[in-house]
Amino acid sequence: MAALMYNVSRGFVIFGEYSLLLKGHKHQILVNSRRYVRALRRRPVAVLYPDGEREKLIKSNEAAYKMNEKLFTQKDKHREKVSEKAGNKKWSGHVSECADESPNIKDKLGGLRFEKAPPGDNRLAKVASVARSRAFREKEGKVLLEGRRLICDALSAGASPQTLFFSAVERLQELPLDKLQQAKLIKVRYEDMKMWSDLVTPQGVIAVFSKPDASRLTFPKDARYQSVPLFLLCDNIRDAGNLGTILRCAAAAGCDRVLLTKGCVDAWEPKVLRAAMGAHFRLPVFPNLDWDEISKHLPKDVVVHVADNSVSFIKAPVPGQRENGSSDEYSDSDSDEESDDELSLPCLKSQVYYGSWAQRNTALVIGGETHGLSLEARRLAEETEGKRLFVPMAPGVESLNSAMAASVLLFEGRRQLLQLLDKRRRRTRSKII
């Protein structure tokens, strides 16, 4: 049987058992018939027999159309099911939209579910912009924490997280997942986080917490066991970097607590938080206090000392001033006329910082570089028979940074208190023996 194909003018096809003969060339060519039969197995337009009969199409266009329509219908139904399933996953509480990304993602997150922020979502922008406002923090009672270490310290201290933004699941796994059950988790693009972050290289996690209350936080036991009866009062510290460094020094020196007056910069300012390196969650910090409230946070037998290099309020002579190596700023004023306010200012004895001044419950007041100590701080020191501590410096140096002066005095106070406690222990042991 022979089959003729349309549009083949230079040859004829003879189905034989072994070969296929093609003409139209200078030399006759024998071609393996099996290879050519494979081509014939594709869908031909029609097949003509020698008697002129015409065979029906193997698969007509109508049948192919119906088959394609059936396939497309099945795909459409599958897409509708997928879209309907995704539509039902609108966020309510904790809904995971990442199940399709990785089958084991729920196991990695301990069953936590999160929401993936869609394009154009501005929730991170709103939170990051308003959280930098002190008025917003005080009105809404919220603070913004950025970075794994700071967020972990806050969670360990018992702070309450509300919303947490993260750029990758790996960043979320670095946090204590068991303490994020009540938080709203939102995955955002790293580019968006970099845009609204205060850091040059964001760590990929930003959290919004309820404003912590120092009286309700749980501080590390090892840090509290190493604390000494040393209290720090910050008076008119206006620089955020200085205040954060002072808080960090207070935590390192083992202070019992830190009290901030209303003249200080907000303790929850982002720059203060970065400089403090988690000190807010290692010792109690009581911000925005009046002087009447400060006495409530101090023991009754406390002695308050002040440390300040400003000379605007110092009018009384200091005995032994030049022998201690201090500058002329501590001497009497050359002016013969003094106002009533100047005459009423407290007169405090001056003492070098390495002298004996921390022998019981001790409070140290650090004044700001610009405004110095307030009148209330000096009066409190006078009432408790405190002294004015200073750090001798080389000639030509005006004064120390507030944070630097605080670090020198705090660690010296810690040394003296630990030495005193050691003496008491030895006396107790000797009496027992």
UniProtKB/TrEMBL annotation:
Domain of life: Eukaryota
SMART domains reported for this sequence: SpoU_sub_bind
Domain RNA 2-O ribose methyltransferase substrate binding: 144-215
Keyword rRNA processing appears in the UniProt entry: yes
Gene Ontology MF, one: methyltransferase activity
Keywords (A to Z) from UniProt: Methyltransferase, rRNA processing, Transferase
UniProt family annotation: Belongs to the class IV-like SAM-binding methyltransferase superfamily. RNA methyltransferase TrmH family.
Protein name as it appears in the record: rRNA methyltransferase 3A, mitochondrial
Originating organism: Labeo rohita
